[in-house]
Amino acid sequence: MRDAERGATVDHRLELNSGGAAGAESAIPQAAAWRRVLRHRLSHVWPRAASWWVPDLWIQLPRHVAPAGDRVAALTFDDGPTAAGTGRLLEVLARWNVPATFFLLGENIVRFPKEARAILDAGHAVGNHFRTHLDCWGAPRRAVVREVTEGGRIQEQVLGRIPPWCRPPYGRLTHTIVKWSRVHRQQIVLWDVFPPDSLEQTPPRTVEDMLLTRLRPRSIACLHDNEVSQERTPAALNSALPKLIDAGWRFVTLPPP
Q1: Above 80 in pLDDT, residue 244?
Q2: Backbone region of residue 205 per phi and psi (left: phi > 0; alpha: psi in -120 to 50; beta: other values)
Q3: Of 10, 7, 8, which is closest to residue 175 (Cα–Cα)?
Q4: What are phi and psi of 36, to 5 degrees?
Q5: pLDDT in tens, 130-142
Q6: Which end of the chain is more exposed for a tag (fewer CB within 10 A), N or C?
Q7: Domain annotation covers residue 182
Q8: Catalytic annotation on 78?
Q9: What's the pTM?
Q10: DSSP states of 97-149
């Protein structure tokens, strides 16, 4: 395909990115450390900015979940299931009786169906994180539609249910994703708290501190279930959750759209 033809198929990203550099680095399999840090910093700003252009986007829980400003929040985990990390997260969540929502990659459900079913068996919820961890800002429309559609189809085939929510990898929305989600009634969910648990240099204490200081009523925290995060996220949660519960926080799965 000629460059001009290919360019015509690329979806217009929402006009809120940082100039294009942040959208390109995921094409590099092993991104440089500074680029991963830059991507993480953008992830703090992007959801709130995107919510101005997509009014039905969730970056916090709907108001009816905590109408009086109660300390209610949702924990979400991207990228799983994994061979080791999922089980460790489930153990910590069970220890503190905390429900959560896992946004699963279709390819990982195929690789680790037992772990995917264990999430549901433990009473947690699952959402659609697409088939692979595609950078939708640099992908043709057809590829984006195929990824989100296949992610949901795999969940239906393996887990026996259609996910009610979706979250694009890196949170990178495009107009194609927004249109698809409305047609297929999968609520797009991003976040308002984004601990750096997928950065290799992050100590567990940093993840814990961000959970303790950044949560607000109706917050949606985005954590991870991948090879990097499993070195810090279970430990951080095991330390943070009892403190948050003692402070009056209650955790819920995402509500139906």
Answers
A1: yes
A2: alpha
A3: 10
A4: -65, -40
A5: 999 998 998 999 9
A6: N
A7: yes
A8: yes
A9: 0.85
A10: T---EEEE-HHHHHH-HHHHHHHHHTT-EEEE--SS---GGGSBHHHHHHHHH
- What CATH number did the domain enclosing 202 receive? 3.20.20.370
Instruction: Assess if residue 204 is contained within a domain.
Output: yes
* Residues 163, 172: Cα–Cα separation, whole Å: 19
AA letter at 5: E
Catalytic: which of 11, 78, 79, 197?
Answer: 78
pLDDT digit string, tens, across residues 53-92: 999 999 999 999 998 889 999 999 999 999 999 999 999 9
Residues, the chain, total?
Answer: 257
**Residue 136 domain flag:** yes
Q: Is the pLDDT of residue 22 over 80?
A: no
Domain ranges, residue 33: 3-13+22-251
Q: Both tokens of residue 158?
A: 């393996």
> If you average pLDDT over every residue of the chain, what do you get?
88
DSSP E strands, the chain = 72-78, 101-104, 125-128, 165-166, 187-188, 220-224, 250-251
Domain count, the chain: 1
Residues sharing a CB contact under 8 Å with residue 162, sequence separation 6 or more, in sequence order: 152, 155, 156
Q: Which of 40, 124, 129, 224 is catalytic?
A: 224
Catalytic residue check, 79: no
d(CA 205, CA 132): 30
Q: Is the pLDDT of residue 107 over 60?
A: yes
Q: How, if at all, do strands 72-78 and 220-224 pair? A: parallel
Residue 257 located in a structural domain: no
